[in-house]
Amino acid sequence: MSNAAPSPAMSFGDRLTQAFARYGRLCVGIDPHAYLLREWGLEDSAAGLREFGLRVVDAASGVAGIVKPQVAFFERHGSAGYAALEDVIAAARAAGLLVIADAKRGDIGTSVEAYGQTWLEPGSPLESDAMTVSAFQGVGSLAKPLDLARSAGKGLFVLAATSNPEAAAIQKATVRVDSTRESTVARAIIDEVTTWNHTEARSAIASVGVVIGATLDLTEFGIDTVSGSTGPAMPVLAPGFGQQGARVTQAQEIYGTLTRAVIVSESRSVLGAGPSGLAEAVERRTQEVREAIG
Ligand SMILES: O=c1ccn([C@@H]2O[C@H](COP(=O)(O)O)[C@@H](O)[C@H]2O)c(=O)[nH]1
């Protein structure tokens, strides 16, 4: 399966559906922390990051369906880091892996459009299959990347309730959505994404998702994990499993009805196996995630 040139007829949600059916829901994070590079016997340089990323791609290829490079680690090395990231992304996509660039971009609409072009435009050097974005400047500010994602068969994951504890105060804060309703910030973002997805109702899984951490009690964020959705399932990129403490056996309990399109994202808990144990760790984790949520 190659996803190098997605036909516009095939949305990101459709490709996600295929990846789920074939490989399950594990997303292997490509997070070349300095300590991991050391443990792997690699230099903390662009060349070391490139080698690290390519080894993860190798281990994930044919076993897991999705990888998520954490852009921050590559940016540390400036232009050489970006060149390494380009190679890692290209190798992953050529191997048939879906690539979610964890770039967490956001800005006013005219600038965020360029971020979308960087990560989602077919033919761009950093072309990925999906990217993470921030709605701090309003979900409406993301209109251009949303349009591009739709026309190019790409995906977006909007930060809604993140796994880090420091975010709770802002994300649980109440906002007035209209003259009759109030909602938490997290819930308001999820509702806007859901509305967007209802206009793309032809796929089983939508192309625009949200980031909701597995470390949270979602009821405290006002997030509905009980009602069944009528439209396409909203993909939920779910960090917080593994090193941050959440267990995949609890996924159903954490996400409730949202579980049907949860992507279990794990980085350090898999990468910590080191280069010799990595392939086995990816296989084992893929299996555990399959057993827990299919
Ligand atoms: O809410 C969020 C959003 C993104 N992340 C990112 O996911 C990985 C998690 O790494 P682990 O080693 O599995 O903890 C990392 O790249 C974070 O920046 C997140 O953790 N929480």
Task: Characterise this structure.
It comes from Compostimonas suwonensis. This protein has 12 helices and 10 strands. The N terminus is likely disordered. With 294 residues, the chain is an alpha/beta fold. The two termini are 20 Å apart. It has a single domain, classed as Aldolase class I (TIM Barrel, Alpha-Beta Barrel), CATH 3.20.20.70. An 8-stranded parallel beta barrel has the order 1-2-3-4-5-8-9-10, surrounded by 7 helices. A two-stranded antiparallel sheet has the order 6-7. 48% of the residues are buried. Strand 6 and strand 7 form a beta hairpin.
The 3D shape can be described as globular
What oligomeric assembly is this protein in?
Answer: single chain
Distinct small molecules: the ligand O=c1ccn([C@@H]2O[C@H](COP(=O)(O)O)[C@@H](O)[C@H]2O)c(=O)[nH]1
Q: Which architecture would the CATH scheme give at its second level?
A: Alpha-Beta Barrel
* The named CATH superfamily: Aldolase class I
Reading off the top of the CATH hierarchy, the class is best stated as Alpha Beta
Low-confidence stretches: 1-6
Please count the beta strands (DSSP E, at least 2 residues each): 10
Order of SSEs, N→C? HEHHEHHEHEHEHEEHEEHEHH
Query: What is Rg?
Result: 18 Å
Strand content: 15-25%
Strand order of the largest sheet: 1-2-3-4-5-8-9-10
End-to-end distance, in Å? 20 Å
Give the number of helices.
12
Largest sheet: 8 strands, parallel, barrel
What is the residue-mean pLDDT, rounded to a whole number? Answer: 95
CATH topology: TIM Barrel
